[in-house]
Design goal:
Layout lengths: L1 H10 L10 E2 L6 H11 L3 E2 L3 E3 L2 E3 L10 H15 L5 H12 L4 H4 L17 H18 L3 H10 L15 H13 L3 E4 L18 H4 L17 E2 L2 E2 L1 H7 L2 H10 L11 E4 L9 H11 L16 H11 L6 H6 L19 H7 L1 H10 L5 H17 L5 H19 L10 H10 L19 E9 L4 E10 L5 E12 L1 H18 L4 E6 L2 H7 L10 H11 L3 E6 L6 H4 L1
Parallel strand pairs: 1-2, 9-12, 12-13
Antiparallel strand pairs: 3-4, 5-8, 6-7, 9-10, 10-11
Length: 569
């Protein structure tokens, strides 16, 4: 109560005890409960309670705890039920309205797991994982009162990277589950060597505690990366004593020695080239780790109306209200096909495959047409036969051909005259050659008193074996110097960056002042000129390039690959 009294004095506000409540565990001593109420003057209430939109409870989850959120969703649904909305509009409302409502709640609780199902609606279970990944990122990389509290409560005597996940609150356990998923994606860029030697991922391979063999002894007296630096060089003897030979050699050969004594090591999110954490990248990473079906990508075809692709999805899930589907859920009814003169039972296979009109339709299109369109028209035919009028096979073929005609116009806008008949469409598509855009590419001479440097880098398989090359020419176009070399395995971006770095080093060392740098990587050109942010993987190299370019009068240009052939050779 002293704290509340001091708060009232400092803020000039008054605590309303009538609107306040005390919550205690139901097994607490009744005498203690009574004393708390007498001292505070605040009445006691029972769990659960709702705080900032999230249910707070200590027992097992119960559906009633989420009744407020459920009522909000149902309120939205009630206003939609009276409207005749097509499936496409319903999908948009679900995706942008209903799925956004529980985002705040998912940061604190986890919903039951379920498959996404192929409609494009995000699994709330995976979204919850991504949000807890954000909490873990904030805990590890952003010093705050909250992170200090969590650290002192749950990892005061042991590093959070190796703390057991079975202990602690619900939020802490979910954060540790996120840790197991994404901790190795947090890279600590060495600056002054403040990273924890064993537990932070400062090598890009993961924390050394987990990278080393399970039976390997970790000398925890080595606290920070700076401990193994001596005279601005790696202490090779110490590294070889405390690490396996392959890891020590990797660090000596590939990791830059910390040299910026006034700057703490910087955390990078490895899944984003911008180095900043995003929930989207975490969610993409989480769903890629799961086993997902690729069948849905063949259902959703750009250019087709949503109602047709949605019908294909319903067919795949057997969610079409045919008689056999109604029987499968426990209803008994007399079933007959409305399309046949001697009608058998109405089943999925009969309506879409075995029925005479369906057979003739599939034979006409030779099964090459988009199946979703044929299934949609057969479904429309079935409904017409049952409720209104008979539909002939010619009508179905015309409707399918018309939809294919419109699809080709959307997907191939360069075809000016799209025929309506299926055989004619096939012939046009087989003969179609896309119009090529021609751009003249030429190498221009540099001005007087200037030199021009072209460079290129390549990585086989990206990442894989890598090399770089650069060549310098004078205003007459004569070659002054050329260099090519194989480097460590990496990506195309890495090899292109090394090519620019080595070329810049050479020019500075040989007192080249007026220089035109030509690279066929528009990505790196925009990074060097400051238009785009640099990727975390080549930050050190780009920083050195920036420092070297300050000594030159330089122009950085983008050139076409065809005019970069000498360096590309």
């Amino acid at each position: 109560m002293e704290v509340l009294t001091e708060y009232e004095k400092a803020s000039g506000q008054k605590v309303n005890k009538e609107k306040s409540a005390v919550y205690m565990h139901h097994l607490a001593d009744p005498v203690v409960m009574e004393k708390v109420q007498l001292v505070t003057g605040i009445s006691r209430q029972e769990f659960p309670l709702t705080y900032l939109g999230c249910p707070i409870f200590y027992s097992k989850r119960n559906m009633s705890f989420y009744s407020d959120l459920i009522q909000k969703v149902l309120g939205r649904l009630q206003s939609w039920k009276g409207k005749l909305l097509p499936h496409g509009v319903r999908a948009i409302l679900i995706y942008h309205v209903l799925q956004s409502m529980p985002i705040h709640l998912l940061s604190a609780v986890d919903p039951p797991d379920y498959d996404e199902g192929g409609l494009g609606f995000r699994s709330m279970f995976d979204v919850s994982k991504a949000l807890f990944a954000k909490l873990w990122w904030n805990f590890r990389t952003k010093p705050s009162l909250w992170s200090a509290f969590m650290s002192n409560k749950y990892s005061k005597k042991i590093n959070p990277v190796i703390v057991l996940w079975k202990e602690g609150s619900h939020v802490w356990r979910k954060m540790l589950e996120a840790r197991d998923l994404i901790e190795h994606q947090i890279y600590w860029k060495p600056r002054m060597g403040s990273s924890q030697f064993w537990f932070d991922n400062w090598t890009g391979l993961g924390s050394l505690y987990h990278v080393t063999p399970s039976d390997f002894y970790c000398d925890e007296s080595i606290l920070n990366v700076a401990t193994i630096v001596s005279d601005n060089r790696w202490n090779g003897q110490l590294l070889r004593n405390i690490l396996p030979a392959d890891l020590s050699e990797y660090i000596i050969e590939n990791i830059q020695v910390p040299s910026q004594l006034q700057e703490l090591d910087t955390p990078y999110w490895m899944l984003e080239t911008t180095r900043e954490f995003s929930v989207k990248s975490a969610w993409d990473y989480i769903i890629l780790r799961g086993v997902k079906s690729n069948i849905y990508m063949y259902m959703w075809i750009k250019g087709l109306p949503y109602k047709i692709t949605f019908m294909m999805w319903r067919s795949w899930k057997f969610k079409i209200p045919l008689d056999d589907g109604v029987k499968n859920i426990g209803f008994s009814l007399a079933s007959r096909c409305n399309c046949c003169t001697r009608p058998p039972e109405e089943t999925f296979g009969h309506v879409f495959l075995k029925e005479p009109i369906a057979k003739r339709t599939w034979e006409y299109f030779n099964s090459y047409a988009v199946p979703a369109i044929i299934i949609w028209e057969l479904w429309m035919k079935r409904n017409s036969n049952k409720h209104r009028e008979k539909v002939t096979v010619n009508r179905i073929i015309y409707q399918v051909s018309h939809t294919l005609h419109m699809l080709v116009k959307v997907r191939k806008p360069a075809i000016k005259q799209v025929p309506h008949r299926w055989p004619d469409i096939i012939r046009v598509l087989e003969k179609f050659v896309p119009a090529l855009k021609v751009t003249q590419a030429r190498w221009n001479l540099p001005p007087d008193n200037w030199l021009k440097c072209n460079m290129d880098g390549v990585s086989i398989c990206n990442p894989g074996r890598s090399s770089y090359a650069f060549c310098i020419r004078d205003p007459l176009g004569d070659l002054i110097y050329a260099e090519a070399k194989e480097i460590a395995e990496g990506t195309n971006t890495f090899s292109e960056t090394i090519a620019i770095l080595e070329a810049t080093r050479y020019c500075v060392a040989h007192n080249v002042f007026n220089l035109i740098l030509g690279t066929d990587s528009l990505y790196l050109k925009n990074i060097i000129t400051g238009t785009w942010k640099s990727p975390w993987s080549v930050t050190a190299e780009l920083e050195e390039i920036g420092e070297l370019l300050e000594n030159l009068n330089v122009q950085v240009t983008h050139v076409m690959r065809e005019s970069n052939q000498l360096a590309d050779y």
